């Protein structure tokens, strides 16, 4: 995963069409176009798993049904705990067959319609419910050496609690992390970098102008600011975290994508044309 | 085994917004979805077919847009679907609805089992399942939480009640209404959904099912809604309590004592 | 049956209350039905009949007069052991044809929801479920039935102008029972079960009383309910402690059940139970619609949350801004003080 940082490959969040989409074929086409563009740019497609508990199609089945190409190292599948065991194995076996080796494992959000992995299914007895930790451990043990598994890190949760969770995720087999969206230098992220200098860290950059939507993630109210410039903020994030990768959420493919060439400086600080 | 699963398309619940004056939920953006309980009915039908072979047919009564929910049932594994749709069905209460569905089930013919979700989350009456059983003169079991055994002649199942449950045996043909506990519904696959998009779903009218027009729609409905009104508002002001946990507790307990609750 | 004139309507007389029998025992909701029936009957100078169907339940018939019944229509037959909905529906329909009641009230319970719709179809009459209000329209003599629709956002008033009898179900604790009056007496009308009452019969093989798997939140006066904010199964121990202290029950939102912190039996909401308790204490529940529709009719809603602006905090009568893990122990301490 360090490669992604060295080679300045952005992680671009892509959501497969929702199950309740009324324009499914159109949405599938749009997904395919975005996906191809991301891969062609040398970036990494980070494909979400029923984001926010809203039923959507899965990354692996969308790639197969649309006949999309997989470039090794440039496709990352998100995986949460809301699957049956059978489905979990199907997803991961398919990933192997497709050549997808990078995973982001999160607890995720459920809904009425989503099944939940049960502890006994993963051979675990000490916990009441399966979280990212148990799932990471299961994947690591069941497919040893096959996947690079990432975990989420939330700098807005109580610090000690979150650092402890991080420790357990790393012990379970996670080898990189992606943070919640940050808008500027963040103390807790700094602490992670200090404690785990070898750990590849990807900070999430919020590319939507509507920063009020971040309020739920950060746990306090953020008001919309007409002066908020996601591209500027992204550049500042790169300056603050030169050794980290970046995960772009809510990227505007029409309005922002073409600006990305100028945002990630080379190690010597040059960007874009100069680099 | 020939199984019919009755499904209904209902308005979706959206994000809760409370009207500050009436304290009532303001519903926005009424999308239509498959009634949550019906997904369990579909899954149970599909599981029984997997075990015994045969056919599972999804049946719904509603406007044309209900075809989307029938396609969802197809993408979840039912073999085919039928929509009852016609002006004449409009305005039906549960009596007329269960009558129409019963005639459709007879038209499908040779049905062993009808499975319904426990209730629809918009009407909430839970009346259509037993209503269908009554129109057909079939056995029924409601609030089914588990099918313990299924055989050539009938089923052994658990019915939930307020005290626990009972285990009963009944023979085909029968109508079941099922609870959320009964299984874990599958999630549609993209492959299944794309196939369902291509599925031809017939739309039947009263003439197709040989229905007596006097038993359909508003005219066929013994009950009629004569008026609707917003519910009485709860109150006008939320009492907010802040401060240290001990202070909050003190204020709350005092308040509850004043109200006669403690 | 279809009625086409006022004369035909008027041939249907008396208000029936179907006794709710569970595990061979007449349930308290029966008294509430009789209370509601009494009010309706008195409005028109009619009688209240309790209808008691069961096996070995005859001895409980005489107790029903004290709760307002003028007559008890009794069918006591061993074939009615266990809940035989087809048989009961057939018998009830036959008795309806014979005695022509104006109104039949039933409980909106598992049994009532199985039986009443079947009877309504067989007797060709209207049924309104979960009524919160019942009254007689003086002009037409019809029963006006009020019930919530769309998750409680609309109160609908329903009427059967052209059919009799008029069937309605009512949830436990919605209607009021009369004061028990042991001095009241009445007449027991004994009827038989007939073979022809149903061509299809179930075999009830076993009956399980399982208080663990069924949490009857409908009867609880006080409910302490937890959501995402409870954070763990252990967190629910605190809610249980508060519930025990006030003699209440524990409920939960779907989020807590999905997370595996408590069993589905405790779920309150659209696909769980609907409650109308006196007091509902929502702890760390943000208030998604699917949950609100299950509890918004509670008398007093108290919410405890760190976030002051969630839908639940806006809905609540009392909104406590705080950490439930700190506030609840203080509440318990405070209650202990007096």
Intertermini distance of chain B: 57 Å
Radius of gyration of chain A: 18 Å
Number of separate structural domains of chain B = 1
Instruction: Give the helix/strand class of chain A.
Output: alpha/beta
Spell the H/E element sequence of chain A. HEHEHEHEHEHEHEHHE
The order of strands across the largest sheet of chain B is 9-8-7-10-6-1-4-5-11
C-alpha-based Rg of chain B, rounded: 22 Å
Question: In what order do the strands lie side by side in the largest sheet of chain A?
Answer: 1-2-3-4-5-6-7-8
Per DSSP, what share of the residues of chain B sits in E-state strands of 2 or more residues?
Answer: 25-35%
- Arithmetic mean of pLDDT of chain A: 93
Helix content of chain B: 25-40%
Q: What is the count of distinct domains of chain A?
A: 1
Number of helices in the DSSP assignment of chain B: 6
What does this structure look like?
The complex is a heterotrimer of chains A (275), B (262) and C (338). Chain A has 275 residues and is of the alpha/beta class. Chain A has 9 helices and 8 strands. Chain A has an 8-stranded parallel β-barrel, surrounded by 4 helices. In chain A, α5 runs parallel beside α6. Chain A is globular and about 50 Å long. By secondary structure, chain B is α/β, with parallel strands linked by helices. Chain B has one domain: 3-Layer(aba) Sandwich (Rossmann fold). A 9-stranded mixed beta sheet of chain B has the order 9-8-7-10-6-1-4-5-11, with helices on both faces. The mean pLDDT of chain B is 90. In chain C, strands 7-11-6-1-4-5-12 form a 7-stranded parallel beta sheet. Chain C has a 5-stranded parallel beta sheet with strand order 15-14-16-17-18. The radius of gyration of chain C is 22 Å and the shape is elongated. Chains in contact: A-B, A-C, B-C. At the B-C interface, α3, α4, β7, β8 and β9 of B face α3, α4, β7, β9 and β10 of C.
Give keywords.
heterotrimer; A: 275 residues; alpha/beta; TIM Barrel; 8-stranded parallel beta barrel; 8 strands; globular; B: 262 residues; Rossmann fold; 9-stranded mixed beta sheet; two-stranded antiparallel ribbon; 6 helices
What is the structure about, briefly put?
The complex is a heterotrimer of chains A (275), B (262) and C (338). With 275 residues, chain A is α/β, with parallel strands linked by helices.
